[in-house]
Amino acid sequence: MTWPEPSSALGWVVLVVELALRVVALGVIPGNRKPSTGMAWLLLIMVEPLIGFAIFLMFGRTRIGGRRITRQRVAVDTIRRRVAEHDLSFDTSALPPTLAGVADLNRTLGALPMTGGNEVQLLADYRTVIAEMAAEVDRARSHVHVEFYIVAWDEVTDPLFAALQRAAERGVDVRLLFDHLGTRRIRGYHRTLRRLRDSGIEWHPMLPIDPLRGRFRRPDLRNHRKILVVDGAVGFTGSLNLIEPGYHHPRNHRIGREWVELMVRLEGPVVTGLNAVFASDWYVETGETVDLVAVHGEPDTREDEELDVPCQVVPSGPGIVAENNLRMFTTLIYAATRRVSLTSPYFVPDESLLYAVTTAARRGLEVELFVSEVSDQVMVGHAQASYYRALLEAGVRIHLYPAPFVLHSKHFTIDDDVAVVGSSNMDMRSFGLNFEVTLMLPDPAVVARMRQVEDRYRALSRELTLSEWDRRPARTRYLDNVMRLTAALQ
Length: 490
Prior knowledge:
Structural class: alpha/beta
Number of helices: 19
Strand content: 15-25%
Mean pLDDT: 88
Low-confidence stretches: none
Radius of gyration: 23 Å
Shape: globular
Helix content: 40-55%
Oligomer: single chain
């Protein structure tokens, strides 16, 4: 191979620097990274060393800052200590051995145990969820803890924010966390901040980026959790953000695009786990500790809820033992014996999850995946599409939820044994970059409720076939593969 001769001293300097960066990258980039991720970064740097290395310095590391890591460790250690001081309300040995093993894994990695005696209700209607949360806040006597990726005070969320304001005015401690960049990009952001400043609600942005104040980190790290806890007794979690279902985007309103969600309302010991996750994030952001003593009101029995359900809260994200949500997902899928039903708006798996799903299908199990017909994110949509051939060839049935709606709910069921629901997508971002919270519910009655949700999705969706997929234009397949490469740059 012959190298072009530089025409100036500057050219020699650039050549030497580029060669040095290539050599350094070979020995540094693969360290403690998945092979696919390491290869993607190496390819970028080998093609364009200067630009590639600059991008790597900005986006290639998941460190959240020394102070944050220290506070997070303190918070997790505190949770472990408090859990150890109390007897567990659920004996995992009562579960099938595989599920008991997953519950023990979740506790080892995420600190929170499985608890029993919980009440669980699935809520699929967008505005009903907002109304239910507002009603609970209006009954609050001690504290309300709110943590969402996106927050917007608009005509749909106003009932909840008005209830939060009323609670603060009557002396309830109302604390609100929202992701800084996730919320900032939404139209009306500054109007929301003005209303919050006048509300009496104590609020803080999560993972704020403000270089002038020394606040800077990898800009695509996100706190993607969705949590609302009232008095430590009632909790909500799932996929919904606190914003109207068209996300304040004129084009969405023009074409009728709305987000389809699934939330879970909880009562019982599991709510303490959700509250502990909030308290950890509040401590990391503010340095303030939060009293988590629950204040229980009158029992609220509902016709469409399941009783005495074992539940486990699984927090995940940078600083927690690597990708514990992914470990739970793959372990449960490998344990399936009859059926796997997956719902994820952004299905961009790493090798381990892709192998788990396709292996289940090739073992003869019924495996289905619900995704949106048209993704709301172009790059992610193309990256996701690059996996469809492997899934279809393995026998996975892909159901496309009709446009213009965005199927944003995130959940899956295994056989008739366990349901998993929360904020985590099945993509590399949710496994490695986002702070997420997930519920594992090993209860046949909850699975049956989730089956009803899946049945509604299936009735509305159309099934994608391999022959249809093969008819895509070559340029589309090319773009899919390029976007798949970008998804691995973590």
